[in-house]
Design brief:
Elements: E1 16-25, E2 28-32, E3 38-42, E4 63-71, E5 78-81, H1 82-89, H2 100-107, H3 113-137
Parallel strand pairs: 3-5
Antiparallel strand pairs: 1-2, 1-4, 2-3, 4-5
């Protein structure tokens, strides 16, 4: 039997809690916390490495550990950090997640630039042909 961590009645700055990612924005992720409040993980607090696209690191529905950085009592805004929670709990750095297609292509071999370029041109031509075919039907 696994014990569930107790849900804190009041979230305190510095606490590390689990939350569920409910929305992704270009500037970060909205996470719902155990007490049903929502907080923001700014893009700069997702990983210690540079994050260009939030979708490369987390997805809607993911359960993540976050550290509460601040709680503004007047606006009720909560600032969260995934990278601080990972650092303090010893999990290490949050790594980008790759799509199934990316993993499939890398497992097919052809790791040279030329092979990747040929594959890209092939896929691009197939897509272009499909678009032309669809436009001719109209």
């Amino acid at each position: 039997m696994s014990e569930k961590p107790e849900k804190p009645e009041k979230l305190e700055v510095g606490a590390i809690v689990e939350g569920k990612v409910v929305n992704l924005k270009p500037f970060g992720a909205i996470v719902i916390l155990p007490d049903n409040t929502q907080g923001l993980v700014h893009i700069s607090h997702i990983s210690t490495s540079y994050v260009q696209n939030v979708n490369d690191y987390i997805a809607t529905g993911d359960i993540v550990k976050v550290k509460i950085l601040s709680v503004d009592p007047t606006t009720k805004k909560i600032s969260l950090s995934i990278k601080e929670a990972a650092r303090e709990s010893g999990q290490g750095e949050v790594q980008p997640q790759f799509s199934f297609q990316d993993r499939q292509r890398s497992s097919e071999g052809g790791n040279t630039f030329e092979d990747k370029l040929k594959e890209w041109v092939k896929v691009s031509n197939e897509r272009h042909a499909g678009l032309n075919k669809r436009n001719k039907r109209r």
